[in-house]
Specification:
Radius of gyration: 21 Å
CATH superfamily of the largest domain: Jelly Rolls
Structural class: alpha/beta
CATH class of the largest domain: Mainly Beta
Number of domains: 2
Shape: elongated
Strand order of the largest sheet: 1-2-9-4-7
CATH topology of the largest domain: Jelly Rolls
Order of helices and strands: HHEEEEEEEEEEEHHHEHEHEHEHE
Amino acid sequence: MQSGIENAVASQAHRGLVGGQGEAGGVLKTPEELADIVSRFAASDGWMERVRLRTDGRWYERLYHGPDHDLWVISWLPGQSTGFHDHGASSGAFVVVTGSLEERRPGEQAQSIYPGRGRSFGPDYTHDVGNGSLGPAISIHAYSPPLDEMNEYEVDEGRLVPRERGQADGLDEVWRVERQEKRAGRLSVEQMLSAARARLQRLSAREAHDALGKAGTILVDIRPESQRAAEGSIPGALVVERNVLEWRLDPTSSARLAVATDHDVHVILFCSEGYASSLAAAALQDLGLWRATDMVGGFKAWRAAGLPIGDGGPRCGSDAVD
């Protein structure tokens, strides 16, 4: 039996995505229609708070199960992957909501998939999807007919061979090794910035303003004192300078702030122009703060948008937990 919140999500999915189909219940969706469904659902409200992270494997939940398609949300910690598999007779589509994923196809190079991007495919499509990045990822998936079969494969001399169920394959370990190799590689600061932003759902100044004051959301000013004094401040923002950011916002840190209650906190960072904040937000995601992001253009964009500013003295993040 579905709980009240599950019924609400299912009702939302039905109204927003299959409403208007009338008597078409049971008519299978095309891959293109499924791609539209996952994109629109990913942009809707009310599902993100359901997401959890799991260290021993991907976390997933079916959000909607209708006569012609179903909807799933999946979270991926670094190194987690599916292995090569198909979806039986179901067509499918998925979109990355936050973070980044990689898709592998037999005989092809891996393709990175960033927020707002995805894949759509017909029946018997075989691929391997995993998180080879350094931070968590979340994706929305849809299948038509609703998913009831997945066949798993392993690669043998370039060929896909059906894999016996329960057979250990060490695929997550392969992804973890590749992630470590990426960590050891040398990147320019521009490459680091680009990789960091690919993982973030960055907010405009207006979007950050609208989010300020919502439960579970913290707007954090990481600028140094001299910059705050020269430029001004944002009323209601919490000051946590960059050099102590991780220690103050990691929920497991003995020096954490009282607002760092868990890894689900929506942290929005800003600096002067929106460069250092992107790198800092990616660092917080590496700590498991999967909703961490930053404000495009930083404080200067906030000021240019005509939003409220103060005199450089917002509240400081000194209330660390002992």
